[in-house]
Structures are given as structure tokens and as C-alpha cells.
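Job type: complex structure
Entries:
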Amino acid sequence: MADESLFDFLHMEIVSHIYKEQQSSKGEMDNKDRAVCVSVLESMGFRVGQGLIERLTRDSPSFKDELDVMKFVCKDFWTKVFRRQVDNLRTNHQGTYVLQDNKFSLLTQLSSGKQYLDQAPKYLAFSCGVVRGALSNLGMDSVVTAEVSVMPSCKFQVVVQKL
Amino acid sequence: MADESLFDFLHMEIVSHIYKEQQSSKGEMDNKDRAVCVSVLESMGFRVGQGLIERLTRDSPSFKDELDVMKFVCKDFWTKVFRRQVDNLRTNHQGTYVLQDNKFSLLTQLSSGKQYLDQAPKYLAFSCGVVRGALSNLGMDSVVTAEVSVMPSCKFQVVVQKL
């Protein structure tokens, strides 16, 4: 479907724009520059996630607990944003959740060899922000990170910040 | 649908990011700065349009002439990207086309009063690029501009560049 590719293509453009602009102002990029890029993409994702979850939960009943929220994110939210459900959700019941997507939509366009493994974080920052933004609007402050060991499978770790 | 809003939200974020980054490096923005922003957004759109049309026309028969291409863009392409068909297509049969969309998807989120009319170009640059990119991949080099007189209606003018 082209409307799905629309988002994918636009996402690619943004990633490349933000890295290019950082590089052109600095010459060579070091880890700090890369962190700036990740942070810009993450904040964009945060605001997009907030907007999306607001629309999606307009007609939803309220959630009974944290796990209930996470299940909604893994099913309904994930399907709308990343076009499939999370394959596996694990939790230690102490505020840490691991969401595994075996075929993460924003990685499927990249080659699945090991060659581009080090490029993966670029393409995950926005999505981490989307998840954090959605959770934040549902009342859960969290830290969201992502990890890829074999493309295009991806693990998101959500650590809920207790007040 | 959230997957549609996904693109809309992301588009909003990009527009705001690009204007902010230009402003922060220059302080006050003048016309030249605004032109830089428009041009960055337009080139992003161009590449996205190229990618999209490539997918969309994969199974299409070839087109018999310029008008045939324009009709495809107004119907199939427009529906996939902007979620409706163009309402009106006019041409002078000398390479100039006017595509009118009475409810342009990227403007429907803005208030329809006159208040934000001067903000409209910000939100049209990317789309002009998308159209130009699509046409370019179908072998038509063109200049695409957009004009809004009453929100959320929008007129795109395509002037085909003859070799």
C-alpha cells in the first residue's frame, strides 16, 4: 500500500536530513553528534506518539492498570503505527517491559545482513519516541530504548519511571 | 484512521523542525530564510514522490500521453497520498495543468479562517515536491507551485518543462 510507504519514505527522509544537517555543521560526526540526532528524532516521535494515542483512545474505555495499557500499546497502537502486533511482551512486574517485534516495519527496508546492523539505531530513535509519547499521554512516564540483534527483529525496552 | 494521522503528524513535525532550525541559526527569518525552508521541504517531497510513484506504477500499463499521466496522478496517486481524488483538472493543452483539491488533506488540520492563510505555503512545499517527484519519474520534468485562496481548498499548478 502506497499510504504505508508514504510514512516509511518520509521517515527515511527525515532521518537522512537530520544526520546530514548535523554532519554539515560539524564535519566528522562523533558520538555526541550522533546523540544529538537521536535526541531530535526521539522528540519528534514523542509528539507524534502523543497525537496518535489521543486519537486512538478517544473511544476506548479507561485502562485498569499498567499492564492493561501495555497490552493496548502492543496490540491496537502497534497495529495502527507499525502495521502488525508486537510478537512478544514480557515484564518483570516491576515496571520493566520488553516488547519484541520480529519484523519491525521501519527495519524491513534495510538489508537483513549484519552489514547495516550499526545503522539500526538511526531508524529506531523516532519509534522509541513514539512509544514514549503514547505512554506518557496515558499517564506512564518511561524510558524507551531499542535493540536489534538480528534484522529486522527488534526489542523495545520500556522502563516505567515511578514517582 | 491513525495510520493516516501518522503521516499528518509526522509532516507537521518536519515542517516545524525545519522552520525552527532555520530560525535558530538566523534569529529573525526573512524571505530568503523562508525560501530555504520551502526548498528543503520540497526536495524531501521530491524524493518521497519518486519512491511512491515507482511502487504505484509497478503494475500499471504504460501511459499513452502527458494527459494520461496527469489523470493517473489526479486519481490513483492522489488517492493514495492525499486520501481523495483531485476535484478538478484543467489544462491549456500546452503543458500547463491546474489541479484543484477542495479539501486538501494537509490543510484540513488548520483552521479554515483567513487567520492562517499566510501559513499555508509552509504546509504545501512538501506536497509540491511529491507531485514533482512523481511526474519526474514518469518522464515529465515540471515546476509545481501551490496556491490557497480559501482553506482547505488548494490549487496546484504544474508547468511541464519542454526540452
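Summary: Chain A has a mean pLDDT of 90. Chain A has one domain: 4-160.
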